[in-house]
Amino acid sequence: xxxxxxxxxxxxxxxxxxxxxxxxxxxxxxxxxxxxxxxxxxxxxxxxxxxxxxxxxxxxxxxxxxxxxxxxxxxxxxxxxxxxxxxxxxxxxxxxxxxxxxxxxxxxxxxxxxxxxxxxxxxxxxxxxxxxxxxxxxxxxxxxxxxxxxxxxxxxxxxxxxxxxxxxxxxxxxxxxxxxxxxxxxxxxxxxxxxxxxxxxxxxxxxxxxxxxxxxxxxxxxxxxxxxxxxxxxxxx
Length: 237
Prior knowledge:
49% of the residues lie in helices and 0% in strands. By secondary structure, the protein is mainly α. The longest helix is centred in the middle third of the chain and has 16 residues, at 110-125. It is globular and about 50 Å long.
């Protein structure tokens, strides 16, 4: 049965931008690909297009517009107010600057973004976590919600809604809370010997949903469980 609406590939730039804002989840996905094909036209409308989104939110439509420009017309980003310092707002309860994280995600440098995320979590957990080089699950409850929310928002905004702690939490809930079912779902490999990066890890937008950021499970699932149940994330799941 025909819907009566033209496919995304036949829509004009204004229609594509409107669908990216107000379309269904499925429509937004198909629109994302079509919008990249008209990146030249998008470069002349980006500033206006971004006004449909809130820098305080995590709508990946805004993140995708910025990523298309970064891919094809990076010179136009300099002309958009606020982009140089990070278009999405990045509040922190303890003065951490998340600009490098936002910049890495914008450029789709996901391995660097994962490293910066781990570094930020150690800072948030306290001096002892920084000194030892990793976070104990028992240190997670003391982390301020606003920072975890900021980190999660940035991952979601620059991954078409595919990556982030709350994405992992949603998938885990759909699998009955079973981590042994979550690992293959998000493309993590647990062969009994965990390293910092599981085998076959992918640092790209095409990675499985929930693939990033990585949480080391060397000491079991308690760290990831503590993160996903943290009030700053649980309220967003």
